[in-house]
Every structure is written in structure tokens, then in C-alpha cells.
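task queued by scheduler; priority normal; single chain, no ligands, no partner chains; default sampling; output format set to C-alpha cells
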Amino acid sequence: MRIKKNDLVLITKGKDRGKQGTVQQTINSKRKVVVEGVGMVKRHMKAQGMRAAEIIEKEMSMPIENVRLICTHCQAATRVRVETLGDGSRARVCKKCQEVIE
């Protein structure tokens, strides 16, 4: 996957379209990401032992196709290309401004 943890992304589809957030977790096997403060849902937790029942809010995962990386150079939501550099290492490159993203 071309989006990594701690990347700043823009949500392009769904009820949170237009919001920005930081990627907290990537789930490679399902091609999903968890974005901080986006995709909030309420879950009812059952009382267990001494703990009372409560309603918690948490972020749900969303498909990676619904987010776009925000380039650190041009500040635009863009797709990402992977290129091999001169020294043989691989780097993510912005498709709009052709700059290396790191």
C-alpha cells in the first residue's frame, strides 16, 4: 500500500467527505485504513464486573480507495507513484508535483 501510518490524508468518499486526518493504522490484508477523527461510530459496551455499561465512540476502518494522500510539498490531495531512485532505493512520488514524499 502506498499510504502509511502518520500520513495526512483527505477523505474523498462517504459521510466524512472533505475532512482531513492522520492515518493511525493500516490494515494491509483488507486494504483499509483507520483515520484519526474520521468515520466515528458509537458502540455500546456491556457492563463487566465492576465496570458500568457505557457508550463509546471510536474510529472505524475505511477502504484505502476512499482516501488521498496530501502532498507535503504542493499541499494538494494526490495519487502516489513509487519510483526507484538512483541509489536503488524506492520512494513515493507525488503525481502532481513530481517531488519525493517522506
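post-processing summary
- The chain has a mean pLDDT of 94.
- Residues 73-102 form one domain.
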